[in-house]
Specification:
Pfam families: TAL_FSA. This protein has 280 residues and is of the alpha/beta class. Helix content is 43%, strand content 14%.
């Protein structure tokens, strides 16, 4: 059962419906699930197989349909294919198609110039979006500005904390900074802490008040085995460089913000490579 004092929504980060069912069994609840091309590539059913583009999209659709049946009241994030050449129009075309797959979809777009253009139009059309591969406060400000006018629940923002930790920066500082910045706004963007690597990350996200977090099954299992605690007072990674808060004006146009980040570029390349590796 979900602890009464837990305000953060808990998502599973997985491309395998079997893990959805397993998590529901040991956790007793699940508020949603995030998927991406790399997670779909790790699905046991793809092992050693090659697909046509249509077959792979059909497989992806089958995965999220099964997940949706397990958690019909939760959100299921589906990611468009995007590489460095993919236009906003192409992302939007995919997004419209994927949004129709299930009734509880959020469409994941990369937080790039083209991804933000696609997201801006998507929310105008009433679609729900999840802006992914976020690594900076400037990117978070741009997402807020690009989706202004959307109702709460329709826009998620996914900062990847583990990948910042990997290069010596304190990813949890980014979560804290974005939450602080968004307090000045209208609340239409929900912060979804992603790239959670361990129980310390999970508990720190809960304690900071992240709206949502998404975690791999192994970390959720560790959390369950620990009794589903909602606090951690000893997460102070002194070996990591602090990320300082920036004073940004959320009322600016989204194009005024510097959304470039090398980790976003690397992430886009990695997701597209994992997807393309499955194609015949």
């Amino acid at each position: 059962m979900k602890p009464e004092n837990l305000r953060t929504k808990i998502f599973l980060d997985s491309g395998d419906p079997a893990e959805t069912k397993e998590t529901m069994a040991f956790l007793g609840f699940l508020d949603g699930q995030t998927t991406n091309p790399s997670l779909i590539a790790k699905n046991p059913e793809t092992a050693g197989k090659k697909f046509t583009r249509e077959e792979l999209l059909g497989f992806y659709r089958g995965v999220v349909e099964e997940v949706s049946r397990v958690i019909p009241e939760g959100s299921v994030s589906i990611e468009v294919y995007a590489d460095k050449h993919t236009s906003a129009e192409e992302m939007l075309r995919q997004g419209r198609e994927m949004f129709a797959w299930i009734p509880n979809a959020h469409i994941k777009y990369p937080t790039t110039r083209e991804g933000l253009k696609a997201a801006q139009q998507s929310v105008k059309e009433g679609m729900r979006v999840n802006m992914t591969l976020v690594f900076s406060q400037q990117q978070a400000a741009a997402v807020y500005a690009a989706t202004r006018g959307a109702k709460r629940g329709n826009v998620f923002l996914s900062p990847f904390i583990g990948r910042l930790d990997d290069r010596g920066e304190n990813g949890m500082d980014l979560i804290e900074n974005i939450l602080k910045m968004y307090q000045k706004g209208d609340g239409h963007v929900e912060v979804l802490t992603a790239s959670v690597r361990n129980l310390h990350h999970l508990l720190a996200a809960v304690q900071l008040g992240s709206d949502i977090l998404t975690s791999p099954l192994k970390v959720l299992r560790e959390w369950a085995q620990a009794g589903l605690p909602a606090r951690e007072d000893f997460y102070k990674p002194e070996a990591l460089t602090p990320i300082l808060y920036e004073e940004l004006n959320l009322e600016q146009d989204w194009t005024a913000f510097d959304i470039s980040h090398e980790l976003t570029d690397v992430g886009v390349e990695r997701f597209s490579a994992d997807w393309n590796a499955l194609l015949s």
